[in-house]
Design goal:
Strand order of the largest sheet: 2-1-5-4-3
Strand content: 5-15%
Order of helices and strands: HHHHHHHEEHHHHHEEEH
Number of helices: 13
Helix content: 55-70%
Radius of gyration: 25 Å
Length: 294
């Protein structure tokens, strides 16, 4: 998600995703919640439910989906709204499971919600708090209760799922950390990276462009790079992107270019260009100015 407050509680907990991904997740959540509710009412009428709460959460999902199309402070609103919606959903599903004394069908819904948390929660600490909350609520509700074998097995499956999804969170966060470390190493090597989509629009410029060329990354996205006269020939020509989809011609796979940075200094770069799985062009450039000048 695109957050505007990097130090906030919610932005630390929630995994950043594109707004398109957020809309897809919300749509799937809302439709799945509504369909599941209707199916449970039809085929499992014996289960106790908090009908008003369930439909209120579904309505919140619809409102949330609509809000993602508003641009005013969208990053901040989406971050906190998603955190609020997930918290309400989690508390509701815990209550739904407890009042049905760990009926396997109720536990299935809770396991699905916990599974979803393993890909949206960006903190092992807060995932642990969530798991402890579920276990404590279960112990409080089950004190003195006599669960049948089926319900007891469902409870044990929930505990097992918490552990398995916890491992998923650990692995995912380690992968994220390794990517961050790789990015940090690239920054130290004065490496510049650029990604352009099939339409020739620049969709990513690494932050290192600030120290190397003096430009802010946001200045160079979309048509920004192509519109700066000093940079137009600093990477591959835009025609290659438009005329050679899904292929990187040999003559541009590796190349050297020179540009004049924002301060008027001549810079030399050695480029390695490649094609990403989604068809976007990616260029990685190493600053070789000191070897050329000397």
């Amino acid at each position: 998600m695109n957050q505007e407050s990097n130090n906030s509680f919610a932005s630390k907990v929630l995994l950043r995703q594109s707004i398109g991904s957020v809309r897809l997740v919300i749509a799937l959540f809302t439709v799945t919640a509504a369909v599941t509710k209707l199916l449970y009412d039809r085929f499992l009428p014996n289960l106790n439910d908090l009908n008003e709460v369930r439909w209120a959460i579904i309505c919140l999902g619809i409102v949330f989906f609509a809000i993602t199309f508003l641009r005013y402070k969208r990053g901040l609103i989406v971050t906190y709204f998603s955190f609020f919606l997930y918290s309400c959903t989690l508390l509701y599903v815990i209550a739904f499971t407890l009042i049905n004394q760990f009926d396997p069908n109720a536990v299935t819904i809770l396991i699905l919600v916990v599974g979803a948390s393993s890909v949206i929660i960006n903190s092992l600490f807060y995932y642990g708090i969530q798991s402890i909350l579920i276990i404590l609520a279960a112990q409080f509700a089950l004190a003195g209760s006599d669960l049948g074998n089926t319900n007891l097995i469902a409870f044990l499956n929930l505990v097992l799922a918490l552990g398995v999804f916890g491992i998923v969170v650990v692995v995912r966060l380690k992968l994220i950390e390794s990517v961050k470390n790789s990015h940090s190493n690239l920054e130290k090597l004065n490496v510049l990276s650029i990604v352009a989509n099939k339409s020739g629009e620049i969709i990513f410029v690494s932050p290192s462009v600030k120290s190397l060329l003096g430009y802010e990354p946001q200045e160079l996205v979309k048509d920004g790079w192509w519109n700066v006269q000093n940079l137009q020939n600093g990477w591959i020509h835009r025609d290659y992107i438009l005329n050679y989809p899904n292929i990187v011609p040999k003559e541009i796979a590796t190349m050297e270019t020179s540009v004049v940075n924002k301060e008027g200094k001549l810079m030399w770069f050695n480029w390695t260009n490649s094609m990403l799985p989604n068809g976007n062009y990616m260029g990685l450039a190493l600053d070789i100015t000191k070897y050329k000048i000397n």
